[in-house]
Write a structure and sequence with these properties.
Largest sheet: 5 strands, parallel
Order of helices and strands: EHEHEHEHEHEHEHEEHEHHH
Number of helices: 11
Helix content: 40-55%
Distance between the termini: 73 Å
CATH superfamily of the largest domain: Tetrapyrrole methylase, N-terminal domain
CATH architecture of the largest domain: 3-Layer(aba) Sandwich
Strand order of the largest sheet: 3-2-4-1-5
CATH topology of the largest domain: Cobalt-precorrin-4 Transmethylase, domain 1
Structural class: alpha/beta
Bound molecules: S-adenosylmethionine
Shape: elongated
Number of strands: 10
Radius of gyration: 24 Å
CATH class of the largest domain: Alpha Beta
Amino acid sequence: MTDLTAGQLVIVATPLGNLGDLSPRALDFLATADAVFCEDTRHSRTLFSANNISPVSRLFSLHEHNEVEQSDEVIARISRGETVVLISDAGTPGISDPGTRVVAAVAQAGLTVTTAPGPSAVIAALSVAGINTERFIMEGFLPRKAGERASWFASWANERRTIVFYESPQRLQNSMSELAEHFPHRQVCVARELTKLHEEIIRGSVLEVATQLAQREILGEIVVVIAGSDEAPPVDEETVRVCLRERLAAGDSTKDAATYASELYGVSNRVAYEWALVIRKTL
Ligand code: SAM
């Protein structure tokens, strides 16, 4: 049980978009804390004014570039018996946002860290995806460099857990079309602008969703949820043969075409190679 007379750090989740998602308990902490550390004081002023919280002089910045220095200030305040709140621009601090280092420092100093939990884009997207949530991995933002993305995708070939990642609207079409080359038949959910006016949840196979997205403009904040390898429907032999034929016709060696199809569809490399040999003779 937390001693409410002693100082403490409270990790407070704030809305992803819809202001109604601020919990009464989160609001209470924001209104009564001695200090509220936030990523961007201008941004958080809007949250304060939308909820009639004052004064804004209790807002202090804590972002990825000053988190270590500000941790000392947070510890000093808590040691004096203050309640210090940490928020991020949206969602839960520490989840792809600053927070982890200050939490570790406060805990290391033997002081109390507690939470007013609430919105987080990862969990919100998983909850509406309709894809197995028993086991999942969160990958953060996809790398911008094509080579790094390719190695992430390769590491997902045998990933059985559901995979979640963030992507920017400018890069979504490109990354979805790359994903479609690797995992065309896996189920995917693109969750856009959750809880906001233009909320949109697109579900289907990777190939279907990539094709749909290639034909339109994409805006806003996005989380992508993709099924793990166990969730992929079994692939029939004809699909693999069509793929092999396409790769061979495009100039792949028999070995390369077999490796590609084997990784893509999970058939044995030896079997794919034998089929590729037969198909090559018909080209
Ligand atoms: N800590 C935050 C949380 O718990 O939700 C996540 C911070 S991360 C820096 C920001 C990313 O979360 C955005 O680029 C986007 O991928 C995702 N995101 C935030 N709000 C979202 C929303 N309303 N709908 C979909 N994705 C969102």
